[in-house]
What we know:
Elements: H1 2-22, H2 31-41, E1 54-55, E2 58-59, H3 65-79, H4 82-105, H5 113-120, H6 139-144, H7 159-177, H8 180-189, H9 191-201, H10 213-230, E3 250-255, H11 262-268, H12 273-279, E4 296-301, E5 305-309, E6 312-315
Antiparallel strand pairs: 1-2, 3-4, 5-6
Helix pairs in contact: 3-10, 4-7, 5-10, 7-8, 8-9, 8-10
Amino acid sequence: MKKYYSSIALVALIAIAFVFTNSQPEKGVNNDDYEQVFQNKYSIFSISLPEKLDFAGEEVPINFFDVKESLDRELLVNTYWQSQTLLFIKRANKYFPKIEEILAKNNVPDDFKYLVLAESELKNAVSPSGAVGVWQLLKGTAKDYGLEVNDEVDERYHLEKSTEAACKFLNDAHDLFGSWTMAAAAYNVGRRGLMKQINRQKQDSYYNLLLNDETGRYVYRILAIKLLLENPDEYGFHVREQDLYTTIPTYEVELDTAVADFADFAHKHSTNYKILKYFNPWLRDSFLTNKTRKKYYIRIPKETRNYTLGQDTIITD
């Protein structure tokens, strides 16, 4: 998240450079026509806010001036960070179906799929504080909720298992605070940190609490992402079906032994090391000792020729 806010400064500099470049008068345009040419070539629009909005079925008090301004800020930032929001839309098509399924199974509201984008942009990111994976779980939290984390296996990188762990955290936070909005805030600042502010300020609503800058913006960023992904056309984002990222069909290989070399393992299953790690990022080394004979399931792509992953076209022998 902190990397997200520092990136905003870079986006602002790029925008300024864009304005400067595109606002230069064309050859042959005199000073009298300059302003007209500029306005015809470059325009920035404010964003209309919805009259009503909810998060996880809980009403957002958009009539509060500070709530309105905070939402407006995040909606502007994410609308005009066009490349990132386009990537959000594309990645969501690939990963949301599985996340939605697990959220529903655990009785966690569907809106929490947008939290994943706020946390990690749906990438297996590593934060400066050591939070890992699309759900940005700390090592202690991951272990508390049953994930294996060591030098060879880190299930924070496992989409399904990390989503299950996140659901357990969110359900516990909801039980503690009695609100899904507060559960989302607790996901960012921690349950202990949020409870400290509740006791200090004698308020139990996210919208009435003074929180650190990151957590104070957190729910609003989730709300902005929700608005953009639910109604992309309304905000100027037009993505063709063929532009969306799609799920690559895979099958699973059951494994309950050691693996001396995953490059050899990949070759045995008609793929390569890079693709094996793409589908199994939770495998953190080139081997697996597996002294306890634990059962793992390794994903292998069904088609091994001419399929596209991100920007790379892989053709395996």
